[in-house]
Every structure is written in structure tokens, then in C-alpha cells.
Amino acid sequence: MRISLFNVTATIEHGCRGFQKLGSSSFQGETARLLGAFSQIRAASGPSKGLLPGPYPQTPEERAAAAKKYNMRVEDYEPIPDNGEGYGDYPQLPDRSQHERDPWYSWDHPDLRRNWGEPIHWDFDMFIRNRVDTSPSPVAWRTMCKHLFGFVGFMLLMFYLGEKFPSYQPVAPKQYPYSNLHLERGEDPEKQPEEVKHFNI
Amino acid sequence: MADYREAPLATRPKTLDPAEYFNLSLDQRRAEEERAGLRAQLKRQYQMQLNNPHRKELIEDPALTRWVYARTNPYNHFRATKKTSLLGGLFGVVPLFVLYYVLKTDRLCLTP
């Protein structure tokens, strides 16, 4: 499959190997083969295949190469566990937000608190200083959860009970004067209204 | 600095962590030096490009390129496992049926 567009060169290197590797699964084989075919096509500009993220490293040599690629020490490099969710060989970095980094160090990008070339966390866009903050909280997280959900749960329970067992002053049906508003209700003025007794003395 | 107390709502700096401050083994020190070496090399590369008077283009960050590529191409390494199939079904298949049922039996027209 060659697509000749301006500035795009189809590289079918390892294409056959890719097909074989992907074709091992049964139902996913069809779609995976197509996807695999497309993933081999890249523009000639940009980084080479060795510099881009790849599949999960199986051998120690692949690990060392991946560590070198990501500018990390071989001992520090730990790929995200392979659970099929598509992380490949991307490193697992500590889940610490950029809020926690030293504000006084001379970062290359001070607003992001990051140096050039430093490996980026998978969820970096979540951990920027406008968003999620993993700094220590004033009270432990579990205590905060307990307090909040305890209070909300208690209020919900009490309102529910209040609906089930209402409590108010005793009430009676409304008592109207003038023989139960005989004339106002539009009844015959000549007719004698029936006597309604509201009380007993 | 041994009596440093943590500032509220801030992580303790790495340099003031007592585990790293006292009783450092040679291996740990070597590891720290290697990391510092890597950092220094990256800093040097960046500064050379930044202060190059003949540079006319943007400084490209390969770490950023890799991150963007990894985030936009997860399906290259996707595998159908129990968890991924469950998630795919839960987010992609179930809402179709649920929404169909809910919208069909909306309160204005109670019959589907």
C-alpha cells in the first residue's frame, strides 16, 4: 500500500512482521491488520522510529534502549504495566503534580516547572498548575472524605426521615363563617342555609 | 536544617528529606550523580540552542514529541483484554441502548 502525497513517504519496513504479529489474535485480526498497515506510514519529516514511543519492552536490551530514548537511567526506567490499554513502552513516572515542584529552581519552562527534554508524565496535562494538585492536604484525605460524606449522608437521611414521618401542629379543616359562606358560594338567598355546628360549648 | 518542619500544603523538598539527607550509601550517591549528569546534559543542549544567535526556528522538544505521539497513538499497542473489552462495552455500547430506551420513553410520550 503506497500513498504518494507531497512530503509523505510510505515506509513499509517491518510491515510484514507487523502483519504477522497482529494477525495472531482471532477477531481483532482483521481490524488490527488494517490499523497495523496504517501505523507503518509516517511522514519522512519528524523523529525517526527509534526516537518515538514503541511497544512494551520484552528484553533487557529493549529496556535499556527505551531508557536511553527517554533520557532516563536504566534503573529508573519502569514502563507502564502492559494491560492492553495502549501505553506501549512509555515510562511510569511518579504521580506528582507540578504544584509540588520547587518554585524557586530555575526551570527551563517556569510556568510548567519543567526542564527541556525531561520525560513527561502520561497525565502531564492533568498535573499542570491550573489543574489537579497532589500536594499534601491540611487533613488526611480519608478524614476529609469521611467528614464530607458523613455530613451529606446524615443530612440526606434526616430529610428522608422527615418526609416519611412529618411532624407539625395539629390542624383541622378550615371553618368558614356566615353558614359556610352560603351567599358567597352563589346559593339561593331565599333558601334557609343548613346549620353547621363547628363547636360544642 | 535537621529541625525543618514541613510547610503546610507543600511537599517536603527532596533535598530536605531525612532519608536522603543522612545515611546515603555510595550506590545512592552514584545514582543521584548519574541523574544530575543526565539533567546537566539536557540543560546544556537546551542552553546551546537557546543562546545560539543564528537560530531562527523554534527549539523542538523531543520529549514533548514523544509524549504527544504516545498519547495520540494508543491503538497501535491496544489489545482486547477483559478490562478493555468491559470498558469499551460500558462506554460505547451500553449508552446507545440506554439512551435509546430513555429518549423513547420520555415523559411526554410514555409509549416507545
From TrEMBL, chain A:
Coiled coil: none
Pfam families xrefs: NDUF_B8
Subunit structure: Complex I is composed of 45 different subunits.
PANTHER family, alphabetized: NADH DEHYDROGENASE [UBIQUINONE] 1 BETA SUBCOMPLEX SUBUNIT 8, MITOCHONDRIAL (PTHR12840:SF1), NADH-UBIQUINONE OXIDOREDUCTASE ASHI SUBUNIT (PTHR12840)
Topological category with respect to the lipid bilayer: Single-pass membrane protein
Sequence segments annotated as region (Disordered): 80-100
Keywords per UniProt: Electron transport, Membrane, Mitochondrion, Mitochondrion inner membrane, Respiratory chain, Transit peptide, Transmembrane, Transmembrane helix, Transport
Organism: Oncorhynchus mykiss
Subcellular localization: Mitochondrion inner membrane
Gene Ontology biological process: mitochondrial electron transport, NADH to ubiquinone
Protein name, per record: NADH dehydrogenase [ubiquinone] 1 beta subcomplex subunit 8, mitochondrial
Location, primary (coarse class): mitochondrion
GO cellular component, one term: mitochondrial inner membrane
Top-level taxonomic group: Eukaryota
Family: Belongs to the complex I NDUFB8 subunit family.
Lineage, broadest ranks: Eukaryota, Metazoa, Chordata, Craniata, Vertebrata
Automatic annotation (TrEMBL), chain B:
Pfam families xref list: NDUF_B4 (PF07225)
Domain of life: Eukaryota
Membrane topology: Single-pass membrane protein
Keywords of this entry: Electron transport, Membrane, Mitochondrion, Mitochondrion inner membrane, Respiratory chain, Transmembrane, Transmembrane helix, Transport
Any single Gene Ontology cellular-component annotation: mitochondrial inner membrane
Subcellular location: Mitochondrion inner membrane
Residue spans crossing the bilayer: 86-103
Record carries keyword Nuclease: no
Family stated for the protein in its record: Belongs to the complex I NDUFB4 subunit family.
Function description: Accessory subunit of the mitochondrial membrane respiratory chain NADH dehydrogenase (Complex I), that is believed not to be involved in catalysis. Complex I functions in the transfer of electrons from NADH to the respiratory chain. The immediate electron acceptor for the enzyme is believed to be ubiquinone.
Subunit details: Complex I is composed of 45 different subunits.
Record's protein name: NADH dehydrogenase [ubiquinone] 1 beta subcomplex subunit 4
Taxonomic lineage from the root: Eukaryota, Metazoa, Chordata, Craniata, Vertebrata
